[in-house]
Fold this sequence. Notes:
Layout: H1 2-63, H2 75-88, H3 95-115, H4 118-131, H5 135-151
Helix pairs in contact: 2-3, 3-4, 3-5
Amino acid sequence: MKKTIFAVMMVLVLLGCEDANKTVDDAQETATKAMEKVQQTADDATEIVQEQMDKMQEQVDSVAFDFDQFSTTSEMAKSFSDAVKEAMNVDFSDPQAIEDVKNKIANSYQCYVEATSESEADSTVNGMMASVSNDEVKSLIETGIEKAKAVKECVM
Length: 156
């Protein structure tokens, strides 16, 4: 009798293990399907974001400021344009270079304002700033212009 009870218990245990294995397999299959859906959603989202970034870059490229337009204008306008271009290429790890560029922007902006008007200079600055994507460069230009408004004198 003991052998029979033991055999029945072993069969029940084996059936239980088989059911447990089937449950684990089902859970793993469900998790795999869910993960595939999440991956597909992530891939789709990445593609959409990349498309939007490409469109935005195209818009930025089409709005880019043409610094060469100043090559045929007044010396003051060209000087200001050159100072802004220099700010775009300045070594931000060199405090002296930053200060030099800031001073060039301040002086050339003030000279440009004196040669034209503050509204024309501001319009030019707005166009330039729209083409600058680096926040450090924008800050440097803005600081130079603020410094120019305090100086109030063109020195060329």
